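--- STAGE predict ---
source: upstream dedup step, 1 unique chain passed
mode: sequence only
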Amino acid sequence: MSETLKCIKKHTNPGEITLILSGSLDFMVRKDIQLALDQSQTEDIHHIILDLSQTSFIDCAVLGIVMQTKQKLTEAQIGFSLISAPGSVFDVLKILEANTVISDVSTTQEN
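--- STAGE serialize ---
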């Protein structure tokens, strides 16, 4: 059973938004994640950051949404970063080679 997704939006710098996700990022919360990402794409935003420091798991359904979002944002010339991925989440990103598509990925050990 999935944990409840929590998403906190923070405007850290002008033109930049950080989405702090917590819980298990799985099939059950994929639509909530998609909605949060879509709502963050406003004309005054030039960089979206996903802070994964409070996540415990990521599955292929959510990773697919993240990858599609990265592609859309690249076409719109909007930056996209994944930061503070815990070790197990970062390992999944590496195994599925998401870190080669999303060049700005960091793990909790790097922060």
